[in-house]
Amino acid sequence: MFATYEEVLDWIHARLKLGIKPGLKRMEWMMEKLANPERELKAVHIGGTNGKGSTVTFLRSILQAGGYTVGTFTSPYIEQFNERISVNGKPISDAELLQLANVIRPLADELDGTELGGPTEFEVITAMAFYYFAKMHPVDIVIFEVGLGGRFDSTNIIQPMLSIITNIGLDHVNILGHTYEEIAFEKAGIIKQSTPVFTAVKRPDALGVIEKQAKKMEAPLFKINKDFTVENHTSLPKGERFSLKLSSGTLEEIEISMIGEHQTENAALAVMAALYLNEHHLYKLDEGEIKTGLTSAYWPGRFEVVSENPLVVLDGAHNDEGITALVHELNQRYHDREIHIIFCAMKDKKLDKMIGKLDEVADKITFVSFEFPRAASAETLFNISKAANKFANEDWQSVIRKEINNLSADSILVITGSLYFISEVKSVLLTIY
């Protein structure tokens, strides 16, 4: 049994050495031992390559505005580990995590000795979330973010009221597949029998896979640019404004506080989910509550302006699609500024494409690394870059402090890359601002 919160974190993080082990049998085994708490939950399931966390946040904020208590399960964390299991955006307490660990630890130990093998770090945390929301802190609704893929993700034992697939990109290709169709097949694995699906996937090849799976599962499918369309988009100083065209009419003048044109599609998915829940009398949500929820939604590390003077932006652009969205926003919003970039990434990403796009927009780019098993070295990133004004430094903390101290009024510092890196950076920035 654990006696302290620190012991729990050490135990959970130690399970990272087990790596990623796709499959549902270990989760099903643990849930059966716990009398299947996941079956007691009213849930929404959100998968996709990018935008999952933002969509979770938009929908959670809408439901909160409607007066509901909302549980969320997300990954990775940005400011503190506990935020992965939250209620109305507030992370569970250290004491609650300790209590959860003492419930799950005996099961993990028992599983270690079976032919199934011990549960991974993510499976342990997922089991904690199921137990927490069913037994320790019941809520009105839980929103689960898929960890990796979908079909064999440990969250995929739930029977949700609806599912959302944000988009499809070439990420985690060594696990999910090397084509959009292969990855779409894994993501589409969260589609359940007769359960509605909302998607912002636009690529015909990936969308075709999702359509085929939805038809097979007799699941109603609602697609962006067909069943709902983002229109009249305008970038605001601190967010975005748009209208959402539906078959039944148009929601005008929707505003969000998250920056990025891509966030309008994530918000649209959350609105569609909220409208479905309302129309089917599952949760009462009116247009005013939907708009209020969207405006107040906040998700750290996603084009987050952490300082306006000097101008410092934190963005967890950890794959090609994320970098593309980041570069688009920099060109749109800050083309008149000198752009300084600090970048760190995982070595299993498509680094040449990501760095190539950053090279095009950066006036100065510094590559760094941090202590993480999959992190690429600063030198590796530096050697890929073709930028004229590039640097490499393993001491990321000193680089950030120096850049901030020397940043001129007509410049912007963008710290981007792996979400795990952004989490480390966020803790340092909190001591500066």
SSE topology sketch:
Elements: H1 5-14, H2 25-33, E1 43-47, H3 52-65, E2 70-73, E3 85-87, E4 90-91, H4 94-112, H5 121-136, E5 141-145, E6 162-165, H6 173-176, H7 180-187, E7 197-199, H8 204-216, E8 221-223, E9 228-236, E10 239-246, E11 249-256, H9 262-279, H10 287-296, E12 304-308, E13 311-315, H11 320-333, E14 338-344, H12 351-361, E15 364-367, H13 378-384, E16 390-392, H14 396-406, E17 411-417, H15 419-432
Parallel strand pairs: 1-5, 1-6, 2-5, 6-7, 7-8, 13-17, 14-15, 14-17, 15-16
Antiparallel strand pairs: 2-3, 3-4, 9-10, 10-11, 12-13
Outline the structure in words:
There is one protein chain. The chain has helices at residues 5-14, 25-33, 52-65, 94-112, 121-136, 173-176, 180-187, 204-216, 262-279, 287-296, 320-333, 351-361, 378-384, 396-406, 419-432; strands at 43-47, 70-73, 85-87, 90-91, 141-145, 162-165, 197-199, 221-223, 228-236, 239-246, 249-256, 304-308, 311-315, 338-344, 364-367, 390-392, 411-417. With 433 residues, the chain is α/β, with parallel strands linked by helices. It folds into two domains: 5-296, Mur-like, catalytic domain (UDP-N-acetylmuramoyl-L-alanine:D-glutamate ligase); 304-432, Protein-Tyrosine Phosphatase, Chain A (Alpha-Beta Complex). The strands form three sheets. It has an eight-stranded mixed sheet, with helices on both faces. It has a six-stranded mixed sheet with strand order 12-13-17-14-15-16, sandwiched between helices. Helix 13 (378-384) links the parallel strand 15 (364-367) and strand 16. The model has no long low-confidence stretch (mean pLDDT 95).
